[in-house]
Design brief:
Elements lengths: L6 H8 L7 H16 L17 H19 L7 H14 L12 E2 L4 H8 L8 H6 L7 H4 L3 E2 L6 H11 L13 H14 L31 H15 L4
Antiparallel strand pairs: 1-2
């Protein structure tokens, strides 16, 4: 006897996933952007007031939430609000285009060729050539070619190689592909879920009753700006609980 499964039932069984209500999220975030979230120019500086959320920043935020829905919430049944909150906090800080005053969009590190070669290169002007070679930057020009990009500012050729395998896109040959929305969001999500950035992953900081937002910065970059990231993530979590 052949049993037929109605397509709607199939969708109900396998694709019943939660999603962020993007319109509601933006509606709740916009009035909080300028003062409640604000901006810290340095780790120990007082919080400064920002102009209202710009049109470009809102477009970026909507795109980011869309891709989080598509690449995280639709694929992971054990998805956690705390994880999304930390992703959003990270993107808000790491992908701030200060020249354009735009938040939440994939960006390329704003740095000159000479400075990039000094910081990340292996040539005669390099600050730490051996370190650069250890991270895959073995040719003159690699420092600038593999400078920070995306929502989390992946840097070094070794990381472009690693995320080429994760995304299925040749980021080594075309580093600017890390600026594509789908690729940039995939890099952020998979890197934070698997520990591909530093060996630390989101699950390492999830406990029974709480998420350790302060130490979760180790997923990306030690403890740099960890207090700022923790504050933003906690605020994002409050908004998310009203939108999912």
């Amino acid at each position: 006897m052949v049993h037929h499964i109605h397509p709607v039932a199939l969708v109900g069984n396998f694709a019943a996933w939660k999603a962020i209500d993007i319109d509601m999220f933006v509606r709740l975030y916009k009035p909080a952007h300028s003062v409640d979230f604000g901006w810290y120019s340095k780790e120990n500086s007082p919080k400064s007031k920002l102009p209202p959320l710009s049109k470009k920043s809102e477009e970026n935020l909507r795109a980011l939430l869309h891709w989080i829905n598509e690449l995280y919430l639709s694929c992971h049944r054990d998805s956690k609000i705390e994880y999304i909150a930390y992703m959003l906090a990270t993107a808000r800080v790491e992908a701030y285009d200060f020249q354009a005053g735009a938040f939440f969009g994939p960006i390329s590190e704003i740095i000159s060729y000479e400075t990039a070669e000094h910081q990340y290169g292996c040539g005669p002007t390099a600050a730490a050539p051996d370190r650069a070679r250890n991270f895959g930057n073995t040719a003159i020009g690699d420092g600038h070619k593999y400078r920070g990009r995306g929502l989390v500012q992946i840097t070094w050729k070794i990381n472009y190689e690693r995320f080429s395998k994760i995304t299925g896109v040749d980021l080594v040959a075309n580093p600017d592909a890390a600026l594509d929305w789908k690729n940039a969001t995939s890099i952020m999500i998979e890197g934070m879920l698997t520990g591909a950035f530093t060996g630390k992953k989101l699950a390492d900081f999830m406990f029974i009753n709480n998420f350790d937002y302060k130490n979760a910065r180790k997923i990306i970059n030690g403890i740099d700006k960890n207090i700022i990231l923790a504050e933003y993530a906690e605020k994002f979590a409050i908004i998310l609980r009203r939108c999912i």
